[in-house]
Amino acid sequence: MVPLAHILALSVILFGLGAAGFVFRRNIITIFMCIELMLNAVNLAFIGFSRYLGNLDGQIFAFFVIVVAAAEAAVGLAIIIAVYRNRGSLSIDDFDSMKL
Amino acid sequence: MITVQADDLVRILPQAILAGFAILVMVFEPFLPAARKTLLGWFSLFGVVAAGAATIRTSFSPGLAFGNSISADRFSLFFICLFLLVAALTLLGSFHSLERENINHGEFYALLLMATVGMCFMAASTELIMIFLGLEISSLATYVLAGFKRQDALSNEASLKYFLLGSFATAFFLYGIAVVYGLTGTTNLLVLSAQLGRSGEFRPGAVFAWVALLLMFVGLAFKVSTVPFHVWTPDVYQGAPAPVTAFLSVGPKAAAFAVLLRIFLGAFASAGSGVFWVFWASAILTMCLGNLAALLQSNVKRLLAYSAIAHAGYVLVGIAAGRGEGTAPVLFYLTVYALMNVGAFLLVAHLAGTGERWTRIEDFTGLGYQRPAVAACLAAFMLSLAGFPTTAGFFAKFYIFRAAVHSGLIGLTIVAVLTSVVSVYYYFRLIVVMYMREGKAEAASASLPWALRVALAISVVGIFYLGLYPTDFLLLTNLAAVPLP
Questions:
Q1: pTM, whole model, 2 decimals?
Q2: Residues in A 6-35 with any Cβ partner in B closer than 8 A
Q3: CA B217/CA B213 separation, integer angstroms
């Protein structure tokens, strides 16, 4: 049996990677994938805790998160397509038309 | 095992009605010719009114529903009424702007209703996962609304930024929930507050408890746009269609504040002073940066965006004072803020003209002579936002500051008063431009459509009523400020 600490460590590392990728990556699709990575890190934490506590709630929460992530992906990709049609670019650096 | 009873359904009646109307709008939308989509808007307004009537029914059978995950208490009903008011005002103000921008699609109304449903669930939930679902329902709808002018590059950009930063923030909130679950084995706020109440203060060694609270705070701070989590706000408020901005700047913000109150003054009220200092610091940062950055703006929508950030700072002062003084001043402030901010943005939406061309401050030059009534309205909103006596903005600030002084937060109150003095400068710039400069205001074209007139009349009358006779409403907020969660 994998101890809780290992699962949590993996979850924290994935979450950190996602957050770092969100900040440092320039491609919008990659940034979006980083957000998904963060959500899945949360799922891992939920499931790890659920097994540790012997309580099924956490696994059900993971399902909720998966559903929400799917809805978010649908909306997000639609927004990304609209953006791409207008600008012809997927680099986050091109989206700076509103500044002080 | 959860069994659904009739009372359960009554306790979510407003949300259920709103969701039903949203679905019906989507069903009817393909059958209506393009010129008659405003009918769907009126239909949605009817839905909002029906939901308002349903809150009265719900108020007769208060209590918990669905396995203690929804609470129909006075606090949540107050917020539901506030959200319905905001939705109704936004609907009334948006018909004409949508037609003008050629984006009068039924989806707008359906999304607006769904966003309202999400916000209502956020305010009414006593279960962290349910709060998360409400947050996502409202967020997904508002991401799309921000980008509703699909062909417009600025609207696209607003939508993209809102979406990316919003989902980023949600992930933090969610991780906070996961840690709470891991520590306590539950995500129900009622159970949590009972457990924490038994064990007294958080142990100093309980690092993970602090991690959980901080993660949840970060997630919600993005939604209420407090410094340093505010970077998306000006861009999104500027780029989104102005009626949508009116909704965004008030609805999701008030909903996130409701959640902050429920979590930090309710379930985790015994978490000690660490949380208080987080609110203290972010209130100071938000008030200072919001007001100072607003000084530099030349675009009215952007100016109002920074003003919205600054106002979030004042609400945080109210929350920091809330442990001793209760939540009534915060509820009062949020209501007043909703009235004046929605009014101001709807008026700007109208004055900006086709394609929202005229949103610079100079575009309003001489408006006071060409359109006295319109300019007077805008001036009233600005005076109220600045917190002038006889307007509701004054009493809203006064109650917050008084609560802060009573809780001994003298330093925080001084900063709040000083920054609100600074804010007078930028609100008055608009008034000065309208009344004291000669010129032909670009932003003075069409006459006001009567639906917008109704919305503005409600906001202006509300502002002066609450400014002159605040006591009745204050009693109401005191009633709504029940012990949480």
A1: 0.94
A2: 8, 15, 18-19, 22, 28, 31-32, 35
A3: 6
